[in-house]
Design goal:
By secondary structure, this protein is α/β, with parallel strands linked by helices. The protein has one domain (about 55-300, about 315-325): Aldolase class I (TIM Barrel). The chain contains 16 helices and 9 strands. It is globular. The termini are far apart. Pathway: Quinol/quinone metabolism; menaquinone biosynthesis.
């Protein structure tokens, strides 16, 4: 049996043991020790004691989607009377409201629309860039794949055209668990190899991306670790992931919640959060999901590997529709960061700081 305390220090130092050793350490190590070593690695990446956050808006341009994912309560099938595609003017107003609240960017995603042409998205990005000083963090890998299929283009062509139109970075949505055994059961349209290939192509084109893991939907611990391994190996090749964001299934209003109605417990979330920090030692930023886990867990995660609190969520429709109920404004996130002993600092979606830490600390 592994000496977990000694093994934890070896993991911190970069040892990469077999999966069974990782799993033994994740569950047998005292939680405080696991969090301690993850926090040490966080401090190696970010020694200035700064924790970042972002003011942005999660704009969903359309809820029409051809996929039927069992963990989603947001989508509407084509032809559904509740389906929508926002016109440009509506989207412009949402951006203007975001800027008025001090926002630096938008996170824009939507369903897998069967008819919208790539030109619609290109013109929207161009209009955004012409009108507003804003970072465009848009279109998850399943959307990119859908654009390629609808327009009969390669993924590379789609990404090149979107980048030319103003796309700055790509969110890691649709990652869920990157094991097809799980993805096929959940009706996820984009398989694991497609998701990874889209991200690798984006990185080759100089488009930074985030990576995610959404868990608690019947996957095994080995599946979770396999997900982390695939993210780590892609990052080792490209260096294009700027952050990793793990969150948990919200089971209240989604079909899969009838099968897996229990939320991931806080201590289990923290164990996997700390494990992700140690495993993904080649990704600079780790964001805690206060939206799905709440503020008490977020506070603990800030001493367990997290260096980012994410967004104030001016607007968020997808996870909230599934049952996430937490809300926060800038003052709340700043308070939590300070209570954990860190200096809060605003950033944009590329994780570039928008103020100096000294200036951020001076703001009461």
């Amino acid at each position: 049996m592994t000496d977990v305390s000694a093994q934890l220090e070896r993991l911190y130092c970069g040892e990469r043991p077999p999966a069974e050793v990782w799993l033994e350490v994740i569950y047998r190590a005292p939680l405080d020790e696991l969090l301690y070593w993850a926090d040490r690695l966080r401090a190696d990446w970010h020694p200035d004691n700064v924790v970042t956050y972002v003011i942005d808006r999660n704009i969903n341009y359309s809820n029409i989607c051809t996929s039927v994912c069992t963990f989603c309560a947001f989508y509407r099938k084509p032809g559904d009377p509740e389906g929508y595609v926002h016109d440009y003017e509506t989207l412009f107003r949402k951006v203007e409201e975001t800027l008025a609240l001090g926002g630096s960017g938008i996170l824009m995603q939507g369903g897998l629309h069967p008819d919208l042409k790539l030109e619609w998205y290109e013109e929207l990005l161009r209009q955004f860039k012409a009108r507003y000083p804003i970072h465009l963090h848009c279109f998850s890998p399943p959307e990119i794949l859908n654009f390629a299929r609808v327009n009969r283009l390669s993924v590379r062509e789609v990404l090149q055209r979107l980048r030319a139109a103003g796309l700055d970075s790509i969110p890691g949505g649709g990652g869920e668990i990157l094991v097809d055994e799980i993805r096929m059961r959940r009706r996820t349209e984009c398989n694991s190899q497609e998701w990874l290939a889209i991200m690798e192509t984006a990185h080759e084109l100089g488009i930074p991306t985030t990576a995610t893991m959404m868990y608690g939907m019947g996957e095994t611990d080995a599946h979770r670790l396999e997900h982390l391994r695939k993210i780590y190996e892609l990052q080792a090749r490209t260096g294009g992931f700027i952050a990793f964001i793990p969150w948990t299934l919200q089971p209240d209003s989604v079909p899969i919640g009838k099968v897996f109605p229990d939320r991931i417990a806080p201590d289990i979330y923290l164990r996997w959060f700390a494990a992700a920090r140690l495993y993904l030692r080649n990704i600079p930023n780790l964001q805690v999901s206060w939206l799905t886990q709440g503020f008490d867990v977020a506070r603990r995660a800030l001493r367990g590997g997290a260096n980012d609190m994410g967004s104030i969520m001016i607007e968020e429709n997808v996870v909230s529709a599934a049952g996430a109920k937490y809300r926060a404004d800038e003052a709340r996130l700043v308070q939590i960061i300070r209570e954990a002993g860190f200096i809060p600092c605003k950033r944009n979606a590329a994780y570039r700081r928008l103020e100096t830490p000294a200036a951020a600390e001076a703001v009461a």
